[in-house]
Write a structure and sequence with these properties.
Number of strands: 5
Structural class: alpha/beta
Number of helices: 4
CATH superfamily: DsrEFH-like
Strand order of the largest sheet: 4-3-2-1-5
CATH architecture: 3-Layer(aba) Sandwich
Number of domains: 1
Shape: globular
CATH topology: Hypothetical Protein Ychn, Chain: A
């Protein structure tokens, strides 16, 4: 099982991150490799997860449909005054982004920050 966590903290990186995720899914699928891919958004990147005009919304929701887990940092949401209930469908929250990343790495996930 391939386990990867992608980290995004700035809106300028969404395009590259989504492209990387799709390339990874394509490769793993082609080679019949099982995978778990997570995307953690924190800092100002979480604001895009409630923005109806988000340029990459369709692509991000497509990632979710391909079994990618997308999570948002509650500390970041709170700091930006964003209600977690406003997040796009199937995006979950986690209490702390940095703790989440550390725990994923302790549990064998590879860390990628485009």
């Amino acid at each position: 099982m391939r386990k990867v966590v992608f980290h995004i903290d700035h809106p300028d990186s969404w395009g590259l991150l989504i492209s990387n995720v799709h390339n990874m899914i394509e490769y793993y699928s082609k080679h019949q490799l099982s995978y778990e891919i997570d995307i953690l958004a924190n800092s100002i990147a979480v604001a895009d997860l409630v923005n109806p005009s988000f340029v990459y919304k369709k692509e991000l929701l497509n990632c979710i449909s391909l079994h990618v887990q997308v999570v948002a940092c509650e500390h970041s949401l709170k700091g930006l005054g964003i209600n977690p209930k406003e997040l796009f469908e199937n995006i979950h929250t986690i209490p702390s982004g940095v703790v989440y990343l550390a725990e994923k790495q302790f549990n064998g996930y590879s860390y990628i920050k485009p």
